[in-house]
Specification:
heterodimer; A: alpha/beta; 6-stranded mixed β-sheet; 4-stranded antiparallel beta barrel; 8 helices; 10 strands; B: alpha+beta; sulfate adenylyltransferase (chain B); Transl_B-barrel_sf (chain B); EC 2.7.7.4 (chain B); transferase (chain B)
Amino acid sequence: MNKLNDKIGHFPRQLEDESIYIMREVAAQFERPALLFSGGKDSITLVRLAQKAFYPGKIPFPLVHIDTGHNFPETIEFRDRLAKETGAELIVRYVQDSIDQGKAKEESGKYASRNVLQTVTLLDTIEEFKFDACIGGARRDEEKARAKERIFSVRDDFGQWDAKRQRPELFDMLNGRIAVGENVRVFPISNWTELDVWNYIKEENMEIPSIYFSHKRQVIERDGMLWADSEHLNKEADEIPFEATVRFRTVGDMTCTAAVASEATEIDVIIEEILSAEISERGARIDDKRSEAAMEKRKQQGYF
Amino acid sequence: MDILRIATAGSVDDGKSTLIGRLLYETNSITKDKIEALETASKRKGLDFLDLSLLTDGLIAEREQGITIDVAHIYFSTPSRKYIIADTPGHVEYTRNMVTGASNAKVSLILVDARQGMVEQTARHLSIAAMLRIPKVIICVNKMDLVQYQESTFEEIKASLTELVKQTTFEGQEISFLPISSLYGQNITKKAEQMPWFTGNTLLGELEAFEYAETLAHAPARFPVQFVVRPMTEAYHDFRGYAGKISSGTFRVGDAIRVLPTGQESTIATIEKFEDKLSEAKAGDSVVITLSTDIDISRGNTIVLASEANAPQLKDFSAQVCWLDHQALTPGKTYLLQHGINITKAKISQITERLDVVAQTATEGVDSLKLNEIGRIALRTAQPISADVYANNPSNGAFILIDEFSNSTVGVGFVQ
């Protein structure tokens, strides 16, 4: 009964209305909100929604990017262009600075990544600018612990998430009241699925970084997945780079985001691939595979 | 493409998580890597079958105890609909999470264990579904495999619930009964071979066929102003737009409007959605409205049609309330009342009665409402609120109560 292609091109518009409503609540309820921008399709969607929510006014909060130094160059270039086009303020803070200040320690070994380290820089940035609300592009369909997250998620002084102390969220009423030192993480696209995001990007004719589309690139094979070869990847002797035609389904760091072999150069083909995919979106993220409760544990420590 | 929101309810171990896992599994909504992860986790638990409940029990404490504590949101879609399931906890002590999860639902799935029949939670959840005015309830008699798929067992349970259903239901609410086995996938998306005596629809069939009468667009027009858009740029020097999501009814360009609570009147000049100019907008649309005259409007004001002579302005009213906090509700205390996006102080003058949702009785003269309890209160707000009676217009009749000191959401109320 579920023919895969029947799901393409059907974006439930109601989702956009609900997300715009959330964006406006953030601007109204908080004094110093920020939009956490990673350059991935989810945060690009957030920027689009923010643009629509306040049009013809400008986005009333800055875009904040925590740069791990391991980003794909294509993402950085895209980020700068988008900020310019929308006229939004862009704030960038670097994980490298946290490492240099001795606040974070570089991981070692072949799975070394800066994914966990970025939490340190994020918390410092929140403190530096006294942000009281940070908008993120997390979705509940991504992962089991995310499925339990509220739209307004209150974090304590240390940025920690306490699953047992979550505020009830009833109807569409959002309670963003916080004490001094606390802040709120806001997830306007909580109820979107990966498919919804892609269908929206298609319907809105939005531009996304080129690495989402099929291209040729030097990769290595590890654990049955393809990884972009780069100076940041700790390779073992038998991991020899070769050229492959790939694309990325999610855009994280080069060290923790695997590529999929793909010939898809158009968005329709990408959506078809998602529908028939054998691996879920976060399945290509090594950071979640560390243990079954990996995400919940990172969230308790302030990860967004 | 529309969205149908569903909430599950039932007692502990009725198999809610398994039912949802089954729905996802049979609608091809689970990717291969997730199924492999399930296989590994099932084996680790020493099971020789796929434990589909592991798909949704996401928190560490939940996996340890094998129960659902918090509301999880699960998604699947068919070519005609996107479904959002709020998987809510079964334990009595998590009733507040159940109310939370069900607050947006248009369909409530109440599970009953075929071996046990109706239990206290069944009555509680039926009452809550009625309190929230959920238009459709499907009572799923689960674990039919454990009673040899007997028709008589199903009919007995159905008969035992008839009286209770009659007491709790409201006019227009659809209630149906369905015999299922989540574990073996009987009557979930496929007809039950084991129960040829059952001629009704499958669960998915019922969900696909359910048409929620779009009454919201015909309800009185309510537009709560969320945010005032004032670009003050050269191109939009004098632009002043009111941004918000229409909570009920329909607004058209040229409509004469009134602003509550100030009572000022004007006419709608434009209705805008990003770069598009619309001729009308209805319930659920997030738009920006501009008016033909400059009047003073701020966040929290509500725009209604000027033709509606007696749009509600409540200051002293009564409400049904479900208490969500460990610290009990005590009369005389002041809370913050949030109605939609509007916040004002409110004093609870009296708890009129406490409802026993299981026995369907009310006790008068109570001095507190504890966590998970439901009652009726009289309250008075500092500023009038533009709320409708919940039963008449659910999208504009609910509010939450916030503790001024802890900032927690401590209660939910329904204007009566």
